[in-house]
Amino acid sequence: MDKKVFGIVLAGGEGKRLMPLTEDRAKPAVPFGGTYRLIDFALSNLVNSGMRQIVVLTQYKSHSLDRHVSQMWRMAPQLGSYVASVPAQQRLGKRWFQGSADAILQSLNLIKDEKPDIVVVVGADHVYRMDFRDMIEAHVASGARMTVAGIRQPIALADQFGVIEESADGSGRIDAFREKPSDPKPLNDSPDEVLASMGNYVFDADALVEAVKSDGDLDDSNHDMGGDIVPYFVDRGEAFFYDLASNTVPGMTDRDKYYWRDVGTIESFFDAHMDLIAALPIFNLYNRRWPIYSAQYNEPPAKFTRDEQGRAAEVIESIVSSGSVIQGASVVRSVLSPWNRVDSGASVSDAVLFDQVHVGAGATVRRAILDKEVVVGPGVQIGVDHDHDRARGFAVSDTGIVTVPKGRQVLE
């Protein structure tokens, strides 16, 4: 392709629905899958798709995110390649980003400097694999000024997504874009499905610049990519869609084909982890032809040992990261991050443990998320008595997932 492509990752959201995991960090910086952060999935997809000039627009509590991008995502500068974290610059006045479209408006200097033909804009908090090369080629071939990536979802779930309604002529043009409709229009070729927006977009660069400038002049706009910029192009007849069902990622299997999950809530975040641990995972981290990149540190391998009573460690359907030690304990259907320690007789089941969590001897952790550096004292129970969990100040979701904040010592 003779087009110059520039990538923008929108990473400025607060992530209120993921509290308390976002109490001390930006949502895209939330750890995931043991050794990753959420932003690694978007960046890996862009880099694996051949993109080499990418900016990450940050805003709230961005220190750990900025540090991760600067330390992990280093590209070859002699080849003009980079992944750069760009904080809110207040170029248009002393104000924060007012929405995702306003974030791009306030960062137009980045597009002006690079002078790309095509701009790919993606969110930073979804778990998926996607080859953007095919979407870009489809965008150019269609003559569209903007293309929205969509994934097929059951029509009963339409009220959870922004829904793309396609034109009847089969051209791929978008007739309407509706947020969480109660009366959705099904796909032309599938009466039981709708096409939900993935939050990934491809633009002609000049069209994107024109759109965000026009949106910036509107007092009644929410300055949102999905809610305002997409309808702008739809009204002009210049918006097309790209169906993820036509995307082929090297190394994909029938089991994890077309996987995409918005991990914006504690429930979806937890469920996405459970998708990783099956023998035939719904999302396969072990695809070497389309790797998910993240930071690699100098850590020893994980170790499973007997305790002083001779009890062997039991680890079933779980991911255990480097530096972790399981000593005569049981770990079932769980994801353990680096430097976890689970002591003699402890039981960890259906749980997600972030870095440097210590579960003491005889303790029980059940259906829970433990943030970094949490210490669970000997014999302490988490996720067994939800009233007791709430009394200790832990969040308990509607489905019974307990979340323990970063650095908490739970000793009773």
Task: Please describe the structure with a list of short key phrases separated by commas or semicolons.
412 residues, globular, single chain, 9 helices, 2 domains, alpha/beta, UDP N-Acetylglucosamine Acyltransferase, domain 1, Spore Coat Polysaccharide Biosynthesis Protein SpsA, Chain A, 9-stranded mixed β-sheet
Could you please describe the fold and organization of this structure?
This protein has 9 helices and 28 strands. The chain is an alpha/beta fold and 412 residues long. The protein folds into 2 domains: 270 residues, Spore Coat Polysaccharide Biosynthesis Protein SpsA, Chain A; 108 residues, UDP N-Acetylglucosamine Acyltransferase, domain 1, CATH 2.160.10. The strands form 5 sheets. Strands 1, 4, 5, 6, 8, 9, 10, 11 and 12 form a 9-stranded mixed beta sheet that branches. Strands 15, 16, 18, 19, 21, 23, 25, 26 and 27 form a 9-stranded mixed beta sheet that branches. It has a 6-stranded parallel beta sheet with strand order 14-17-20-22-24-28, with no helix packed on it. The longest helix is centred in the middle third of the chain and has 12 residues. It is globular, with a radius of gyration of 22 Å. It starts with a strand and ends with a strand. The model has no long low-confidence stretch (mean pLDDT 93).
Cα radius of gyration in angstroms: 22 Å
Largest sheet: 9 strands, mixed
CATH topology of the largest domain: Spore Coat Polysaccharide Biosynthesis Protein SpsA, Chain A
Q: Report the CATH C-level class of the largest domain.
A: Alpha Beta
CATH superfamily descriptor of the largest domain: Spore Coat Polysaccharide Biosynthesis Protein SpsA, Chain A
Number of helices: 9
* Overall number of structural domains: 2
Q: List low-pLDDT spans.
A: none
How many E-type strands?
Answer: 28
Strand content: 25-35%
| End-to-end distance | 61 Å
Helix-strand makeup class: alpha/beta
Q: Portion of residues in helices?
A: 10-25%
- Overall mean pLDDT stands at 93
Which CATH architecture of the largest domain would you pick?
Answer: Alpha-Beta Complex
Q: What overall geometry do the principal axes of the alpha carbons give? A: globular
